[in-house]
Design brief:
Blueprint: E1 21-25, E2 31-35, H1 36-43, H2 51-56, E3 68-72
Antiparallel strand pairs: 1-2, 1-3
Protein name: Transposase
Organism: Gluconobacter potus
């Protein structure tokens, strides 16, 4: 199995992937697409936080549901 440098690993912190694109989509149609570092800074999330901890805590601001999220280089 080869390494996948496009996707974060569970141990990756926001700082390590701060320039990657963070895509969040909810079933209600609400979505956010912005650089991960910018997303974290705007919400006061420390850059030492692991990416998957952020994803696990996401909640849609419109409907309150659980959105899906991905972090990619492009």
């Amino acid at each position: 199995m080869s390494a996948n440098y496009e996707r974060p690993k569970p141990i990756d912190t926001i700082h390590y992937r701060k320039d990657c694109i963070f895509r969040i989509h909810c079933g209600c149609g609400h979505f956010i697409i912005e650089p991960l570092g910018q997303f974290a800074a705007a919400r006061g999330i420390p850059i030492t936080t692991r990416i998957y901890k952020v994803i696990d805590r996401l909640k849609c601001t419109k409907c309150g549901g659980r959105p899906t999220a991905e972090v990619t280089r492009y």
